[in-house]
Specification:
Blueprint lengths: L25 H38 L15 E5 L4 E9 L3 E16 L5 E10 L10 E5 L3 E6 L5 H11 L6 E8 L2 E8 L5
Antiparallel strand pairs: 1-2, 1-6, 2-3, 3-4, 3-5, 4-7, 7-8
């Protein structure tokens, strides 16, 4: 047995071919680069999806809501506001939200009862009064608690209340129309007559 060749080459070492490409670490680096690319692409796709969802939410909030009650207010017309206690105010609604509403250019109905002793006939004079001439001297603006408002209506320009307001604005020294209601027993008569005040 000849053991002379064994000493020149260590045991277990294979011969290396210098023309063969080196494979140490190159496949590992390639897989890391691929993972990095996939991560970047996924991040971009995720950001794009989040942006689309955000835009869709904004569009739904802006256009998907049911219209609020305030959108029905016709700003160039008068409104009648009916309160829980039975009082009615006529004016122009300004600010309107779930807590309160503002009313300006305000008018209301004034009822004067005339009862004479010994008579079975009572007459009520109903007139349209401008807010501001009362004893306490209020300004021509109201802030009404929304919970106190039963409902409100837009008034037509050819309605009796708006006609009376227009007549008042043309001549504030003249009174508006007066409704006289006379009650005799179970019978009731109503007459509408314009009254004028002398300056």
């Amino acid at each position: 047995m000849d053991f002379s060749n064994r000493g020149t080459r260590p045991v277990g070492q294979e011969s290396v071919n210098p023309s063969a490409p080196m494979s140490t670490g190159t496949s590992h680096k390639g897989s890391k680069m691929n993972e990095s690319r996939v991560t970047k692409i996924m991040t971009i796709v995720l950001l794009f999806a989040v942006t689309l969802v955000g835009i869709a939410a904004i569009i739904l909030l802006a256009f998907g809501k049911t219209p609020s009650e305030a959108t029905y207010i016709k700003k160039n017309q008068y409104q009648a506001v009916f309160l829980n206690g039975g009082q009615v105010y006529f004016g122009k609604i300004g600010k309107y939200n779930e807590k309160y509403l503002t009313l300006t250019d305000i008018f209301y109905l004034r009822v004067n009862q005339q009862v004479q002793p010994g008579q079975t006939t009572a007459s009520n004079d109903v007139s349209l009064a401008k807010l501001g001439s009362e004893l306490h001297g209020p300004e021509d603006q109201m802030v009404l608690n929304r919970s106190e408002v039963q409902f409100w209506e837009n008034l037509k320009d050819d309605g009796q209340v708006v006609k009376a307001i227009t007549a008042y604005k043309k001549n504030p020294s003249a009174a508006t129309t007066t409704d006289t209601t006379q009650t005799t027993g179970n019978q009731q008569q109503t007459n509408t007559t314009p009254t004028t005040k002398k300056p």
